[in-house]
Amino acid sequence: MISGGGNSASLKLTGFIDLSGQYGTGGLSVGTVTGSPNSAAFTLGGLALAAGSGVTASTVNVIDGSIALSGAGASLAASGAVTVGSPGGNNLVIAGQTYSSSGGANGSITVGAGATLSAASLAVADGSLTASGSGATVSVSGGLSLGTAGSASFVSVPYYFGNSGSLSISGGASVSVGGAITALNSFGGAFATISVSGSGSRLTAVDTLTLATQLNAQSGGTVQLGGLSLSGSSNTSPYVFVDSASSVEIGSAGGAAKGAITVDAGNTIAATGNTTLSGNIADNGTISESGGGR
Asked: pTM to 2 decimals?
């Protein structure tokens, strides 16, 4: 454990580190990548912040490894971007350097009860973002992206294999996004899922969720979005599920019925290709479908 607090121009962590106290830094990176301009070689890292401890950084990059926030007052705040995991592919830029090939590296951020994570933007390039427990709070002032899209052409430079990203909210946790959310399921097998479960668990986004995978609201979870765009294709079948104890609302009117996918006046669900809405539908706005939505 490192304790006492302090400030630095940057902070690069390998191995598994517990920090106790309050810290300020420029760029924070967890795990490392070496080998440029040849194949990327990743080294695992980990950061744990317990109750009352916090880090304020300009950017956060979980290159390979994990960050865990747990306990009242544990916090991680980034004035800029947070990136989780590293993509796989060829001729990619990772952590500011170009690599001829990358197998990718999984990353995760876990926000436990009473802890907070804030960022200007957040991208789960390969891995997961989990908020679980009462008082667990994630706030993103800009956009949230889940997964890395695979390149459609084998001759693309850079070329991305496609990597998965997931968002899980449970136990009364909340995630708020000031911009849009993108959840990918693309060429190369990338698959992003969003799960909101448990009484008091909540996902909100000011702008549109573009979904090519799954959104599940269950066991009392609440989802409120500025819009919903479902994009199905030959290898993607977006699916929205709400159970009888939960709600999904497109719009900000509030009071959405349990067990329903509600579209408020002036708001839209746009569905193309093979898509599914599973739950009661309360359409007070617009639902547009083409090419097989159901």
From this structure: 0.94
